Request: fold
Amino acid sequence: MTSASALLTRTVQSLDGIAKEGLGEQRVSRWRARRIVRVGEAWHLGVLLLTDTHALATAEVLRAADPGRRGYTAESARARAERRAEALRGGFDEGDVVHVGWSVIDVDAVDAGGSSGPLALVDGVPSVRWSAAGGYMPLEAYLRERVSLLRDSAGG
Reply:
């Protein structure tokens, strides 16, 4: 059986040439407005973000944008617009996809029989929980499907 680390490494190698999305972190200071700054980039594969060296669990996904002057019927819409503006202030370009709140997955723990983030070893098979309500599915099939979708959306 192929380990989770081997599957992820092989997947990263297959993604060479496909565009990545931005990884951001919230920054707060006394002198500057709240902002989300770029700390890296990753390929977005559903519940996973893959960098050249790490597997990350996704969290908040947003698109950097100027909130403009709008009236909001819901406080949640105002909060989302402010988060998009924070990414713009942090140096992302208008329209960039930004991932915030992601966490590093301990792939070694998964390979050792445990779990980390959405990954787990289930009956000896590296598996992924693709949604909070969903069950586990084999990681190899999940990655194959997600890479195919990413390639299709990238036009290649």
